[in-house]
Amino acid sequence: MIAYVPQHHPHGVLTVPFTITNHGDRPYRYDITVMVTGAIDPGVPQSAHISSDGMLPPSTTMATEINFESRDEVPAQDINVRIANIDKRGPST
After folding, report:
1. 73: CB partners within 8 A, 6+ apart
2. Pairwise CA distance, residues 38 & 20, whole Å
3. Can you tell me whether residue 76 is helix, strand or coil?
4. Could you report the per-residue pLDDT of 71-81, keeping only the tens digit for each?
5. With CB atoms counted within 10 Å of each terminal CB, which end of the chain scores lower, N or C?
């Protein structure tokens, strides 16, 4: 998973774009927890969850994004995005 530069929008919305790539040799479902610090209060993290759209086939990349609340005056360079957890699940056998 790769997080890209956050995009600050009017009305308190911060969008963080991502790509999820399955480098495995079989399909996997990805459930990811993302932490953002500095969007509303410096040092106070916000968390959000994102999932792949079902099972992601091998060697496939999926683009997605997460929206967070933010202050309108916060520039994107003051935002810290951290991938806190990635849960990768294969098909049931």
Report:
1. none
2. 24
3. helix
4. 766 665 678 88
5. C
Give the pair of three-digit tokens for residue 69: 């609340």
CB atoms under 10 Å from CB of 89, counted, come to 12
The rounded Cα 19 to chain-centroid distance in angstroms is 8
- Partnered with residue 81 across adjacent β-strands are 36
Distance of alpha carbon 56 from alpha carbon 40, whole angstroms: 33
- Quick count: other Cβ atoms within 10 Å of Cβ 56? 19
Structure tokens at 90: 């294969």
pLDDT tens readout for residues 55-64? 999 999 999 9
Return d(Cα 93, Cα 88) in angstroms, integer.
Answer: 15
